[in-house]
């Protein structure tokens, strides 16, 4: 079985090693800043050792960046009217790891590596450190000069599959990308306030959301009492919140999706089929498919509306424009 896994990983490396997408290319900094990827990796690793939950934070940071004005580091800008101050972004974290990596890169190769690329590399390293797949990240993004808290159309925990599909399609992502990328919820946590409405008076019936399995409902009600602390953190994948694996998809199949938007993937025929494929029943193979597809979806997402060439800038400090 280990030999089979190695075979799949070799195929994966071959499939992603020569990726060039949206004007980006793997190894973009090989001559201008040869140690760039190693610096980002070691920085993420040091933060991860102190707190493994930072991996999910960095992955989400990159996702939220790409869904607003493309993958241009705009989510990193600080300020009351900046993107990261918008309501859907208030729970974002991992900024310190990005700033730390940028400080080291500026000392090593001033004005060369963009904050947008640091985000993309940190997201990859976070998945790898959480026992997930690795891949070659096409780089060469430049940083945007606009960051506004207005008009953000980010996916929400309340979204139906139809709405999720529309939001992903607007960024050039299809159903397969949608389910695959939502699979990132295999690591990380959410607040009780984002799903507690499902546990008690769902749609004012007095009952819980019927899509939640009964045994799991009791578990969630214990974790999130009706009048308890709404900011209490709960794992999105109850079984293995720090391990990047396919148990998230098994949970959705079994009525154990924490967020309503995740659980709804089981109710739509097209997305259910993809969830079922990842959840799988063939022991030993179910992880390979996700390990192979997630990097492809990430490379595609990481190329959304990127700025390259002379567009944008290379920020000196990730939290402010030059």
TrEMBL record:
Residues of the Plant heme peroxidase family profile domain: 23-322
Transmembrane segments: none
A GO MF term: metal ion binding
Keyword vocabulary terms for this entry: Calcium, Disulfide bond, Heme, Hydrogen peroxide, Iron, Metal-binding, Oxidoreductase, Peroxidase, Secreted, Signal
Subcellular location: Secreted
Family (UniProt): Belongs to the peroxidase family. Ascorbate peroxidase subfamily. Belongs to the peroxidase family. Classical plant (class III) peroxidase subfamily.
Record-given protein name: Peroxidase
Organism of origin: Citrus unshiu
């Amino acid at each position: 079985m280990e030999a089979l896994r190695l075979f799949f990983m070799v195929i994966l490396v071959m499939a992603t090693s020569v990726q060039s997408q949206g004007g980006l290319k793997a190894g973009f900094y090989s001559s201008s800043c040869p140690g760039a990827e190693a610096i980002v990796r070691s920085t993420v690793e040091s933060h991860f050792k102190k707190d493994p939950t930072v991996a999910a934070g960095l992955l989400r940071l990159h996702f939220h960046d790409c869904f607003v004005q493309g993958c241009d580091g705009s989510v990193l800008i600080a300020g009351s009217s900046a993107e990261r101050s918008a309501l859907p972004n208030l729970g974002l974290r991992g900024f310190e790891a990005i700033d730390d990596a940028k400080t080291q890169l500026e000392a090593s190769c001033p004005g060369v590596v963009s904050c947008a690329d640091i985000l993309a590399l940190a997201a990859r390293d976070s998945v790898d450190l959480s026992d997930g797949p690795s891949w070659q990240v096409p780089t060469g993004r430049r940083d945007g000069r606009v960051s506004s808290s207005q008009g953000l159309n980010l996916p929400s925990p309340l979204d139906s599959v139809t709405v999720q599909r529309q939001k992903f399609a607007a960024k050039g992502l299809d159903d397969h990308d949608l389910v695959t990328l939502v699979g990132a919820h295999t690591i990380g946590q959410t607040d009780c306030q984002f799903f507690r409405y499902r546990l008690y008076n769902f749609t004012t019936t007095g009952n819980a959301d019927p899509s939640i399995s009964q045994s799991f409902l009791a578990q969630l009600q214990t974790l999130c009492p009706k009048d308890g602390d709404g900011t209490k953190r709960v794992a999105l994948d109850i079984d293995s919140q720090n391990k990047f694996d396919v148990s998230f998809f098994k949970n959705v199949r079994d009525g154990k999706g924490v967020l309503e938007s995740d659980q709804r993937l089981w109710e739509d025929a097209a997305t259910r089929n993809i969830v079922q494929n990842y959840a799988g029943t063939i022991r030993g193979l179910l992880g390979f498919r996700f390990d192979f597809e997630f990097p492809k979806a990430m490379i595609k997402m990481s190329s959304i509306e990127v700025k390259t060439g002379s567009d944008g800038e290379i920020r000196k400090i990730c939290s402010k424009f030059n």
